[in-house]
Automatic annotation (TrEMBL):
Gene giving rise to this polypeptide: ttcA
Entry note: cofactor: Binds 1 [4Fe-4S] cluster per subunit. The cluster is chelated by three Cys residues, the fourth Fe has a free coordination site that may bind a sulfur atom transferred from the persulfide of IscS.
Top-level taxonomy: Bacteria, Pseudomonadati, Pseudomonadota, Betaproteobacteria, Burkholderiales
Cofactor: [4Fe-4S] cluster; Mg(2+)
Species: Acidovorax cavernicola
Additional remark text: The thiolation reaction likely consists of two steps: a first activation step by ATP to form an adenylated intermediate of the target base of tRNA, and a second nucleophilic substitution step of the sulfur (S) atom supplied by the hydrosulfide attached to the Fe-S cluster.
Keywords for the protein's UniProt record, in alphabetical order: 4Fe-4S, ATP-binding, Cytoplasm, Iron, Iron-sulfur, Magnesium, Metal-binding, Nucleotide-binding, RNA-binding, Transferase, tRNA processing, tRNA-binding
Protein name according to UniProt: tRNA-cytidine(32) 2-sulfurtransferase
Lineage top rank: taxon: Bacteria
Function of the molecule: Catalyzes the ATP-dependent 2-thiolation of cytidine in position 32 of tRNA, to form 2-thiocytidine (s(2)C32). The sulfur atoms are provided by the cysteine/cysteine desulfurase (IscS) system.
UniProt-listed GO biological process terms: tRNA thio-modification
Main location: cytoplasm
All residue ranges annotated as the tRNA(Ile)-lysidine/2-thiocytidine synthase N-terminal domain in the record: 52-212
Reactions performed catalytically: cytidine(32) in tRNA + S-sulfanyl-L-cysteinyl-[cysteine desulfurase] + AH2 + ATP = 2-thiocytidine(32) in tRNA + L-cysteinyl-[cysteine desulfurase] + A + AMP + diphosphate + H(+)
Length: 317
């Protein structure tokens, strides 16, 4: 076990040993593995014979993803393999021995790519501006190219449920788009299939698991970039909502899995010129949450029953 400097830390080892044997830890590990397995199955992320390239940055998310995929490789009813890839971006002070030592200890095949994106980003982005957008674009290009070189059929990224929700809000608030990070997508050039096995796992669990496992974390601020303030604001907003209205972020996430195109405004997704189907509209939560004076999107119109009987309300659109 290593610290971020790559040396064993006694107190954290003791914590790790105590916690890793506890009932809570077992529950946490089971939950993460179950949710990762569920996401993999739900979105058809991994198929027989796949070589999954696990992008390992040295952060808690990527270690947890690798750990989950190694577990799934053992128990899944299909055969697939894993190769870990780390991109050394030549940030000052990058501890280049940590990941090779960790992966060797686990007997996981790996490749470290050395590309000085740090200098490019420093040169291109004006002082004081956030560097993450260009840095991520460069990194993504290098990782995709490496996946092709390695013959990897899937590229696994460590984004989790909270990343997905934050990205949803960022896109809505700043981009005017209803979109987020999908659990699986094909790259623009069609050469890579990107998967996010931790899509169902929440950040709190991942952080707790990473601490319990004593993963040798490599700090993500070596580049000296300012933290992404907008993303942080989204995170804090979601956390505050969850404090005030427990379960709200779960509902937001569930909403992403249950989209009703006919009840949005995108004419590319729904033909509004043909009569809409009415099924399910009475279950629409917005109907009974609408304030008394707000128009509901469902018009309640009387329908006539058989002659001699009374009338009842029904929805129509
Ligand atoms: S924090 Fe630094 S290394 Fe990470 S994406 Fe931003 S610029 Fe790149």
């Amino acid at each position: 076990m290593f610290t971020s400097e790559g040396v064993a830390d006694k107190s954290s080892l003791q914590f790790h040993e105590r916690f890793s044997m506890s009932v809570e830890f077992n529950k946490l590990r089971k939950r993460i593995r179950r949710l990762a397995g569920q996401a993999v199955v739900d979105y058809g992320m991994i198929e027989e014979g796949d070589l999954v390239m696990v992008c390992l940055s040295g952060g808690a998310d990527s270690y947890t993803m690798l750990d989950s995929l190694l577990y799934l490789r053992e128990v899944a009813p299909i055969n697939f393999d894993v190769v870990a890839v780390n991109l050394d971006q030549k940030q000052p002070g990058f501890p280049e021995d940590i990941l090779p030592a960790y992966l060797t200890q686990l007997n996981v095949p790996f490749r470290v790519i050395e590309e000085d994106t740090y200098s490019i980003v420093k040169e291109k982005v004006p002082e004081g501006k956030t560097t993450c957008a260009l840095c991520s674009r460069l990194r993504r290009g290098i990782l995709y190219r490496t996946a092709v070189e390695l013959g990897a059929t899937k590229v696994a990224l460590g984004h989790h449920r909270d990343d997905i929700l934050e990205t949803l809000l960022l896109n809505m608030f700043f981009g005017g788009k209803l979109k987020t990070m999908p659990p699986k997508l094909v790259s623009d050039d069609g050469r890579n299939v990107v998967i996010r096995p931790l899509a169902y796992c929440n950040e709190r669990d991942i952080k707790a698991y990473s601490a319990a496992m004593n993963f040798p974390i490599i700090p993500c601020n070596l580049c000296g970039s300012q933290p992404n303030l907008q993303r942080r604001a989204m995170k804090e907003m979601i956390q505050e909502w969850d404090r005030r209205f427990p379960g709200r972020s779960d509902n937001m996430f569930r909403a992403l899995t249950d989209v009703v195109p006919s009840h949005l405004l995108d004419r590319k997704l729904h033909d509004f010129n043909t009569p809409a189907k009415v099924s399910g509209e009475l279950d629409d939560v917005s109907n009974w949450l609408a304030a008394p004076n707000e128009p509901s999107e469902v018009v309640v119109a009387p329908i006539r029953l058989m002659p001699g009987t009374s009338t009842i309300g029904s929805s129509a659109s």
